[in-house]
Amino acid sequence: MPKTPSEAYLEKASKLPKAQIERLLSRSRNKLMRRMLENKLTPIELAAIQLEIEDEALAEWRERMAEIKRKEAEKLDKKAARTDK
After folding, report:
1. Are 72 and 79 in contact (CB under 8 A)?
2. Which residues contact 3 (CB under 8 A, 6 or more apart)?
3. Please, what's the largest Cα pairwise distance for the chain?
4. Residue 62 lies in a domain
5. In this structure, is residue 35 part of a structural domain?
6. Dihedral sign from CA coordinates of 28, 30, 34, 37
7. 2 within some domain
8. Is the dihedral of CA 73, 78, 79, 80 positive or negative?
9. Which residue of 12, 28, 74, 84 has the fewest C-beta atoms within 10 A of its own C-beta?
10. Is 63 exposed, middle or buried, given 0-12, 13-18 or 19+ CB atoms closer than 10 A?
11. Radius of gyration, alpha carbons of the chain
């Protein structure tokens, strides 16, 4: 987890409407919320970090799904090859 948000994510977070920032903050981890409450992070900085965390998680999920789909396609190809003989 990054300690400070990147400039790109700070820019994204600063453009979000208040309702979306609140949603992001509601999904943030306790450790991040504690940092905000201790005045170490602003709500925008916290939202930027949360955006970055969620983007990384989404990228990992997409990689896993692509791997699962690839394995499923291989299974179907093997099954089709066996039935063709």
Report:
1. no
2. none
3. 69
4. yes
5. yes
6. positive
7. no
8. positive
9. 84
10. exposed
11. 20
Q: How many domains does the chain divide into?
A: 1
Whether 56 maps to a domain, the answer reads yes
pLDDT band at 52; cut points 50, 70, 90: very high
- Residue 11 has which token pair? 């820019």
Distance CA 21, CA 51 (A): 10
Question: What is the C-alpha separation between 37 and 12, in angstroms, rounded?
Answer: 22
Give the whole-angstrom CA distance, residue 16 versus residue 21.
6
> Which tokens in the block code for residue 36?
């905000």
Average pLDDT over residues 7-16: 95
Lowest mean pLDDT among 30-34, 42-46, 72-76: 30-34
Lowest-confidence range among 15-19, 20-24, 60-64, 78-82? 78-82
Domain span holding position 51:
7-84
pLDDT(3) > 80: no
Look up the pTM and report it. Answer: 0.75
